[in-house]
Amino acid sequence: MQTSRAEGTDASIRVSNIGGIESTEVDLTPGVNVLVGRNATNRTSFLQSLMAVSGSQRASLKGDAEEGRVELELGDETFTRVLTRRGDGVDFSGDPVLDDPELADLFAFLLEDNEARRAIATKGDLRDLVMRPVDTEAINDRIDELVAERERIDDEIESADAASRRIPELEERRVDLQDEIEAKREALEAKQDEIDEADAGVEESREEKDDLEQALDRLNDRRAELERVASRLENERSSLASVREEREDVEETLADLDAVDEDEVTFLEERVSSLRDRKRRLDSTITQLQSLIQFNEEMLDGEHTEVLQLLADEEGAESSAVTDALLPESEHSQGRCWTCGSEVSMDDVEETLEKLRSLAREKRTERSDVTSELEDVQAERNELETRIERRESLESRLEDLGEEIEEREDAVERLTDEREEAQTAVEDLEETVEDLEEGRHSAVLDLHREANELQFELNDLQDDLERVEEEITELQAEADRREDLEAEREELTTELEDLRTRIDRLEAEAVESFNEHMETVLDVLDYGNVSRVWIERAEEQVRQGRRKVEKTVFRLHVVRTGADGTAYEDTVDHLSESEREVIGLVFGLAGYLVHEVYEECPFMLLDSLEAIDSDRIAALVDYFHEYAPYIAVALLPEDAQALDDDYRRVTEI
C-alpha cells in the first residue's frame, strides 16, 4: 500500500468556527492519533474539520459565526476550506485535498453516521455502497464505443486479408502480361520487316497508300475507343450487380432487425428523468436529515455552547448552569429544549432523534433502490437507442444504395448507347478500308492490316499491365496496414476486457477483502461463539419493467458455534451492538482498500466506538493502523488507556 500525500510527515491543522470549535490548532503525526476526552469536548467537531479540509461537506458552521475556516499543512502542501453562511445554508470554498470526496465520505470518514459503517445494522445494500463511486453508465457507453470501433477495424483487417490473398493472383497475371507483351512486340517487329520487304517490290501510288494508312489509323482509334467503352460498360455492370447484392443484404438485415416502439423510448426517457429527479430529491432530503441529526447529536454532546448560552440568557439562567439546565446527567430527567426553550424529557428527545435516524436510513435504502432502478432503466434505454441508431443507419444506407443503383443504371444505359455508336463507327470504317484495299496489292494490304491489329493488341496489353500494376500497388498498401490494424485492435480489446471486468473485479475484490479482514479481526477480537462472518457474491433475478434481469447482490452471512460445537447460520438481528459496529468498520476498511482511498486521502477517522469494549477497541485500532497513513480516533479516557502508549494523545482541542 502506498500514499501520495506526504507520507511520514506531521500534519498541522488550524480550525476556527467549525462545529463547537471557536479556534484551535492541532498537530497530528503519521500513524494513530488518539483524541482523548469526555463528551462535549469538540472531538467530533475536530474530526469534521478534517473532513471539511479533505473536501467533504459533512461539517457544520459554528452557530454564532458567519464564516469558518480550516487550514491543513501537510509536507510542502497547504490546503484550505472556508465555510460561509448564505441565508439558510452554508457555502463551501477553498482548496481542499480532494476534488471529489465521495470515496472518502464512504470509506475513510467512519464516524457514527457513516453510511458504509451503518449498512450492517440497517441491512443496507452492500453492493450498491461498494459500486456507488463507479460510473457504470460511462463504462457501458465506452464499451459500446469500443465494440463499434473494433468491428470497424475487423472489417478493415478483413479487407487487408482479402488484399493479401488477391496480390499473388495479380502478380501471376502481371508476369503473363509481360510475356504476352514481349511476344506481341516480337510479332509486330517481324510483321513490320515483312511489310518493308513487300513495299520494296511493289509499285503503288503514294496517295492511295496514305489514304489507306489514315483510314487504318482512324479504324484503330475507333476500335480502341470501342474496347474502352466496352470495358467501362462491363465494370459498371459488375459494380451495379455488387450494389444490388449489398442492397439485398441491407434489406434482409433490416427485415431481421426488431422494430423499436418510439413510445417505449419516450417512456424510458421520461422514466430516467423522473428517477434522476427522485434521486436528487432523496439526496437533498438525506443531506438535510443528516445535518439535522448531526446538529442535535452535537447539542446532546454539549458542543454548541453558544446556543445553550443564548437559551440560558433568554431564560435568565446563570451561565455556569447552562449545561446542567439544558443537558441533564440522566437521560430520563427533564431538560430544556434548544428549539422552543420548554422543558422536555430526554427520553422524548432521544426517541425523536432515533425516529430521524430511522427516517434517514429509510431514505438511504430508498435512494439505493432508485439508483439501481435508474441504472437498469438507463441500460434498457441505451439498448433501444442503439437499435434505433442501427435501423436509421441501415435505412440511410439503403437510400444511398438506391440512389447509387439509379446512377449506375443510367451509366450502363449511356455506355450501352456509346458502345453501339462506337460499333457502328468501326463497321463504317471497316467498309472504307475494304474499299481502299481493293485498289492495292492484296498481300501488302493484308500485312498492314495484320500489323495494325498487332499494334492494337499490344496497346491493349500495355493498358492491362498498367491497370494490374496500379491495383497491386493499392492492394499492397492495404495489406501492409494489417500489422498496425492488429496492434490497434489488440489495444481496443485490452481496454474492452478491462472495462468489462472492472465492475466484476471491484465486486470480487471487495468481497475478498472484507472476508479476509473479517476473518482476521474476529480471530484477534475473539467474539466467542461468532465463528465466521462473510459476504457471498451472488446473482438473483429481479423484475425490471415487464421482464426479469440478473442482478449482483452481496449477501452477509453470520455463522455461530453452539455450546456443543455445532456451527449454525444466524442473522444480523441477533448480533450484539459491538459485533455490528466491528463488522461495519471492517466493511468500511474493505471499501477503503479496494478503491485505494489512501492514494488521495491521507486520513482515516474513527468516532463513537463506545459500544465496543476497551481492549477490542485497542486491537481494532492496531489493526487499522497497518492500512491508513494517518488515523484520528476519538475515545473516552477509559477507552484510550487500553491503546499503545506510543500512540500520540491529543487531550485539548
UniProtKB/TrEMBL annotation:
UniProt entry tagged with the keyword DNA damage: no
A GO term for molecular function: ATP hydrolysis activity
Coiled coil as UniProt keyword: yes
Ranges of biased composition (kind: Acidic residues): 401-410
InterPro entries: P-loop_NTPase, Rad50/SbcC_AAA
Keywords: Coiled coil
Domain Rad50/SbcC-type AAA: 12-227
Origin superkingdom: Archaea
Region of interest: Disordered: 187-211, 401-424
A Pfam family assignment: AAA_23
GO biological process, one term: double-strand break repair
PANTHER family per the UniProt record, alphabetical: ABC TRANSPORTER ABCH.3
Family label: Belongs to the Sph1/Sph2 family.
Protein's UniProt name: Chromosome segregation protein SMC
Gene source species: Halarchaeum grantii
